[in-house]
Amino acid sequence: MHPAIPILAIGALIAWIEDAPAPAVREQVVLLPDTDGRVGQVTVTTPSATATLDRAYAVAEVLSDGQVVSGVASSAESVRQRFAATLAAQPPQPVSFNVFFVFDKDELTPESTAQFERIKAELVSRPAPEIVVIGHTDRVGALEYNDALSLKRAEMVRLALAQAGIAHAQMEVAGRGEREPVVATADEVAEPRNRRVEITVR
Amino acid sequence: MMQSWMTITLVLACGASWAAQPAGVVKIAKGSVAIERASETRTPTPGDRVEAGDRIVTGKDGQVGITLRDNTLLSAGPNSVLVLDQFAFDSTTHAGVIDASVRRGTLAVVSGKIARQAPESVRFRTPNAMLGVRGTSFVIDAGQEAP
Angle CA(B39)–CA(B130)–CA(A53) in degrees, nearest 5? Predict the structure, then answer.
């Protein structure tokens, strides 16, 4: 075969690729770092392709031919600017306060009630604020028992908030039982730091 | 028999408490924003409820921010259409589901408690793609033309 033929063929192929209309970018997804700086993961999937984003400001572009191309945005600032109107409407991050009971009593510790002022300040600073009061227990006792106990403690904190003048229409009470300890322990271990009620303002 | 009655009572009680809690609450609404529910369209103000099935539409100067019950933060920019197809959240177990579509425009998301507990139960869709989420924050531009 003449050596020029394959070269011509490649040249024609390159010309064809260059002439073919490039698939248009239909959609974009950009991964942002969390407020604490950590970066999670998003997968973008079409019927014909998938891309995983796991770096801050990684971008996936969904093309008109169904392919997904990933890269990284030129700068954090370019993303913030482009999505400025969208990010400006983001509601404030919820904030949580932990309160504790005096050992063996239905009474909150003085440090706990001292936080009520900060809760009031949060309520004033937020648009359409809601309060969620979530009870937690340690791992002593059965799961169902702790569910009921945590809900009862959360109800008590709701009353305490109401007595402090934080009677709020948008107040939800939840009992998370022993599922979310702040200090990991084996089952049936008493741990006072896990016997808490979390007050979330959002 | 006793047990089955207890189960029914429990299911009814849970159903009632879920019905009492909205899927989310509008926190920010600026410019032209509409929420379409069943055959009604309303202009939301901060504090209004968002329910599963709601279609949220912003105009060219519209912005809306919503906090879902599991602490997921959603915000849509101008010229956007967001549909909250499904939402459920159990505040005791953190089991639940989020299924939302950006049909047009832009959406910013900070994932919440369901994504932490059961990431496979959280889905965001665009006209051409599906997003899976592992505890994070991201923005979507779904463009202005649905396929």
Answer: 135
| Residue in the structure block whose two tokens are 């033929």 | A5
- Please, what is the end-to-end C-alpha distance for chain A in angstroms? 75
Q: pLDDT by residue (tens digit) across A110-130? A: 999 999 999 999 999 999 999
CA of A12 to nearest chain B CA: how many angstroms apart? 33
Q: Sign of the C-alpha dihedral, residues A124, A126, A132, A138?
A: negative
CB A52 within 8 A of CB A59: no
Domain range list for chain A = 22-88, 95-201
Nearest CB to A128 within list B46, B128, B133: B46
Contact residues for A48 (Cβ-Cβ < 8 A; gap 6+): A65, A66, A67
Residues B134, A172: C-beta atoms closer than 8 Å: no
Q: Cα A113 vs. chain centroid, distance in angstroms?
A: 28
Q: Which of residues 110-129 of A touch B (CB under 8 A)?
A: 126-128
Q: Where are the alpha helices (H) located in B21-146, listed in sequence order?
A: 113-117
Domains and CATH numbers, chain B: 23-141 (2.60.120)
Q: Who wins on pLDDT, A46 or B9?
A: A46
State the pTM of this model.
0.87
- Render A153-170 in DSSP notation, one character per residue: HHHHHHHHHHHTT---SS
- Size of chain B in residues: 147
User: If contacts are CB pairs under 8 Å, which of residues 107-136 in chain B contact chain A?
Assistant: 107-108, 110-111, 126-136
| Helix (H/G/I), strand (E/B), else coil: A152 | helix
Options 3.30.70.2470, 1.10.3470.10, 3.40.1410.10, 3.30.1330.60; CATH of A95-201: 3.30.1330.60
Q: Is A69 on the interface with B (CB under 8 A)?
A: no
Token readout for B6 is: 């207890």
